């Protein structure tokens, strides 16, 4: 009987899972046999299974990988008694006990939800919004932050770029780096240009989402940070008092001038702005809207253009820019919807939606990247299904199906890893005399020729 002991980020035992046969998936969402609810864990991250009285682990295309005894695995790996497996921020230990020694044998596997915690080092705690209190341990050397699943910290907020920033940990010396985000990264309300060191208590804001950087064991009083990321009330009060004083001085000065003017011949009233002045102001606002548009800040650009359009109706240059902005806003909505489809594994629906984004838009390149990602996930899903059939029982049909799925993969990144893993698999099969060894040998040669 195998027992998998799962430790949370405190190093405390969170669950024990016992099994002696079968195949069990591990991931972040419901539907997996073991659910680890953390952004460092992919939706379907890994698979542990028993075959021929040996226990193995597969990485199912996860973003952060699977580490066995400190080494990131590249292919199927056997795990033995005492081995340590790291999946995201969780640590799993495998124990093997003889069935005769088991006094209380339970079910083959337990479905479990594990509560996240903290560990040594530092963490960031979300503050000042409806999700205040959400914590992320900075347990990786490079902790990426963004709106898409490949990031270590996933933030589903429209102000967050796909790959927004990363926090680097070098021997517990931390710094934050902006990755060219649209809405910027701020430390203590100061926009960083590239990289900024971090110290305990610093406020870090990604777009509109604010965190406090603290040691992992420190409790954060969320009430104290209710206004974090905003200008302080004291500053606003000082500014208001200063403005009021300035207005009083201006009014007083105006009264004095009026009194002086009343004793002397009246001066002509100031002239209304000329047409040239109005045109210059209009052009400056139009230029500002164009800059926002070019920097993909479409909502800000749209506010200015709507105002201009109401003041200067029927001007083609204003209406033309407004049409372009509205198209990009629509494209961004499609990209967000397609990203949600990909997260829910509706890959074909995402592709159909993204292919409606034209190549004359700013959003085209982003759409093409998502199409590429969705197609890769389709190929990997087909491959994983075929590989599972082989694990369940070899046959000529299952070997041929796996070979076809591997041939469809692209020889880059994780897909290349799957091709190489399949070659090794086919080589092992072809060494044994069986009715499918010839098929496996032929497949291995064909895959090698593709590389």
Map the helices and strands.
Blueprint: E1 2-7, E2 13-19, E3 23-27, E4 34-35, E5 46-51, E6 54-59, E7 66-68, E8 71-72, E9 77-79, E10 84-87, E11 90-96, E12 112-113, E13 122-127, E14 135-137, E15 142-146, E16 153-154, E17 165-170, E18 173-178, E19 185-187, E20 190-191, E21 195-197, E22 203-206, E23 209-215, H1 233-262, H2 275-294, H3 298-311, H4 316-343, H5 347-354, H6 364-392, H7 396-407, H8 413-430, H9 437-450
Parallel strand pairs: 3-4, 4-12, 15-16
Antiparallel strand pairs: 1-2, 1-11, 3-5, 5-6, 6-9, 7-8, 7-10, 10-11, 13-14, 13-23, 15-17, 17-18, 18-21, 19-20, 19-22, 22-23
Helix pairs in contact: 2-3, 3-4, 4-5, 4-6, 5-6, 6-7, 7-8, 7-9, 8-9
Question: Which labels suit this protein?
Answer:
38% helix; 23 strands; 451 residues; elongated; 6-stranded antiparallel β-sheet; 6-stranded mixed β-sheet; alpha+beta
Q: What can you see in these coordinates?
A:
The protein is α+β, with helices and mostly antiparallel strands and 451 residues long. It is 38% helix and 22% strand. It is built from 9 helices and 23 strands. It has helices spanning 233-262, 275-294, 298-311, 316-343, 347-354, 364-392, 396-407, 413-430, 437-450; strands at 2-7, 13-19, 23-27, 34-35, 46-51, 54-59, 66-68, 71-72, 77-79, 84-87, 90-96, 112-113, 122-127, 135-137, 142-146, 153-154, 165-170, 173-178, 185-187, 190-191, 195-197, 203-206, 209-215. The strands form 4 sheets. Strands 2-1-11-10-7-8 form a 6-stranded antiparallel beta sheet, with no helix packed on it. It has a 6-stranded mixed beta sheet with strand order 9-6-5-3-4-12, with no helix packed on it. Strand 17 and strand 18 form a beta hairpin. The chain starts with a strand and ends with a helix. Mean pLDDT is 83; it is low at 101-119.
